[in-house]
Amino acid sequence: MGIEYGPVELRHVRYFIAVAEYLNFSKAAQQLHIAQPPLSRQIRQLEEDLGVTLFLRNKRSVALTKAGQIFLDEARKLIVQAGHAMEAARHAQKGECGVVRIGIASGLGGVVSRVVFEHRKRLPAVEIECRDVFSSLQNDALRKGEIDIGFLRPPLDQLNLDCARYSSKRNLSSSWPERTAWRNAGSFG
Hints:
Strand order of the largest sheet: 4-3-5-7-6
Shape: rod-shaped
CATH architecture of the largest domain: 3-Layer(aba) Sandwich
Low-confidence stretches: 179-187
Distance between the termini: 42 Å
């Protein structure tokens, strides 16, 4: 299943960064709001897990080894990347990124293009794929997950799908499965 890594935890990486920046276990422990002995144990455990010595220690000083300097550079990148991953997950949960597949009934492209344009201004990280799908086929395509939202003319499957009237003079509605995460983002319909 790919490369296997040891049991290094982000918490240990954060602890390492604090000690590396302060070069003092007591000050790092204060900044981390933990006691110094457990911090020392965690750093020793990290060194064992990695199989390298990260710090040179004596009673008066702490210094990074060459391996420690390299690990510090990579650890900082790792923490930043972990932050990006968390933010991406939050955006995905809110429907603010990803791909939205839209079914558009024939003759409705002009109307829908204005909605898509406004959506792209509000949520530029969401990729939009537009597909021509007859109104009569959209309810089924929505239930099967082939499209995420449909712009169609009635009849609508209001029992299994969330629906909203978009234009009464054109008899146009939008419809989407209840499970759709981005429906709460207020982006379509």
